[in-house]
Fold:
Amino acid sequence: MEESQNKKIPDLLVDEAALAEAQKGLMERPTMSIRAKITLGFVFLFILCAVASITFLVMSSLIDRKLKFMETLNYYTFEIQQARRYEKNFFLYRTNLPDALENVQTAREILKKESNSIMSVIGQEKLKVMTVHLDRYENYLNDLRAGGIPLAGKAESVSKIEAELRKLGAEMIFLAVNLVNKEREEVEEMSKLTRRMPLVFLAVLLGVLVYLTHFSAQQIVRPLNRFVDYTIRIARGDFSPITATRRYKDEFSRLAIAINWMMEQLQKNQEQYIQSRKMAAIGSLTSGIAHELNNPLNNICVTTESLLDELEEVSDTEKRKRLQDIYTQAERASGVVRNLLDFTRMDRPSFVPLSVHELLTSTMKLAKNEMDLNNVELEYSVPEQLPHIKGDFSQLQQVFLNLIINSIQAMPHGGTLRITGDSNDQGFVQIHVTDTGQGIPKSILPHIFDPFFTTKEKGTGLGLSVSYSIVKKHGGRILVKSETNQGSTFSVFLPRVGGVS
Ligand SMILES: Nc1ncnc2c1ncn2[C@@H]1O[C@H](COP(=O)(O)OP(=O)(O)O)[C@@H](O)[C@H]1O
Ligand SMILES: [Mg+2]
Structure:
C-alpha cells in the first residue's frame, strides 16, 4: 500500500492576515539602503586616504622643521667654535676678545631669532639651558675684558676663568653637537618611516578593498540567492508571503514587497481561474443535472395532467396524495438546483456545525447520474449520528464531490464506490472514499495534490489541490492509500465539534 500525506502542499487561498503582517514587517524597519552602504564604504576609503595623506604631510613638515633646526644649530655651533678660537687667542696673545664677544652675540641672536623653531624641536628647557650657558660664557668674557690688564697680574684668577671658559665652551659644543646628532638620527628614522608609509598604506588599502568587495558581494549576492529560492518556491505554488529577514530596509525589501504584491495578484487570478474551471466542470456535469431535473419535472407534469383530467372523479384522499407527490418532486428539483448553486458559489467560507451524513448525501445526489452512467455501485455506510463537524457546507461538498468524481473516473468499466465514516479518539471525524479502480502509480503519488497535476486528457488537475487547501483550512488533512489495479482510498479527517470527547 502506498501512502501519501503531502505535507508541503501549497495553500491556494490568500492568507491576507499573514500577507499584511509580512508587508508591515518589511516596511517597518529602519532604512539602510545598499546605496547608502556603498557610499559609506567609499567615504571610509576617502577618510583612509585623507588620513594617510595628512600623516605624510605632517611627517614631511616635521622633517623640514628638524632639518631647519639642525641648520640653525650648525650656525650656532660655528659661532661658538669661532668664539672659542678667539678666546684661545686671547689667552695666548691677549687679542681678539671683542671678536669672541661678537661671535657670542651672533650666537645669541641666532638663538633668539630661531627660538620658536628651536623650542618646537627640543623644548623650552633645553633652550633655556643653552641660553644660560651662553650668558655665563659671555659673563666670563666680559669679566676678562673688564678685568683686562689689571687682571693680568692676578694670574691665578685668570687661569681659573680660563679653565671655566674651556669647560663651558666644551659643554656648549657638546650639547649642540649632541642635539644635532640626536635630531639627525630622528630625521633618518622618520624618513625611513615615510619611505615605508606608501607600502603600508597600499597594504591597508588592499585589505580594505578586499573587505569592501566581499561585503558588498554579501550584501547583494546573498539576498539574490534568497530571492532565487523564493521564485523557485513560488513557481512550485507556495504563495506564502516573503517576510523580513534582515534588520534594515533596503532595495531588496522593496523587491520583496513587490513580489508579495505580485503573489497576491497571482493568487487572485488563480482563484478566478479555479472558479472558471469549476464552471467548466459544471458544464460537463450538465447532462447529469438535466437528467436529475428532468425526472422530477416529468413526474410533476404527468401527475398534474392526470389530476386535471380526473379532477372530478378521484377522491379527496387521492387528490391529496397526488398533490403530495407533486410537492415532493418539486422539492427534489429545487434541491438539485440548490446543490448546483452551492457548488458554484465562491463566497468566503462560513463555518457552522454540519451533519456529515447530510453533507455526504447531498453530495452523492450531485454525482448520482455519473455513477449510473459508469456502472458504479455505491456502498454507503456513514452513521447518521456521527458527531457534527464545523465547516463550510458548499466547500466541503466540493471536496467530496471531487473525490467521488475522481473515483468514478478511476473505474471506467464500473466498480464499487464505498463511502464510510467514523469518529476517532483524537477528536476527528474521518470519512473514507474507496474505489476499486486503477489505483495510483507510486511514481505520481507525491504529485497528485499539486495544482494542475493531471493524468487525464480533459483533467484540470485542480480537484485534489483545491480539496487539500479546503480541508487544511478546516484544520483537517487528507490521507491517500492506493495500490495499482486494486483501487484507492482517500481519507478525509475533519475536527469534530467539541474536540476530543
Ligand atoms: N481515485 C483515484 N484513482 C486513481 N487516480 C486518482 C484518483 N484520484 C486522483 N487521481 C490522480 O490524481 C490526479 C489529480 O487529480 P485531480 O487533482 O482531481 O485532477 P483531475 O481529476 O482533473 O486530473 C488525477 O489526474 C489522477 O491521476
Ligand atoms: Mg479530479
Observations:
- Residues 34-215 form a domain with the Four Helix Bundle (Hemerythrin (Met), subunit A) fold (CATH 1.20.120).
- The first helix runs from residue 16 to 27.
- The beta strands are 2-4, 352-354, 376-381, 389-391, 415-423, 428-435, 477-483, 487-495.
- The mean pLDDT is 86.
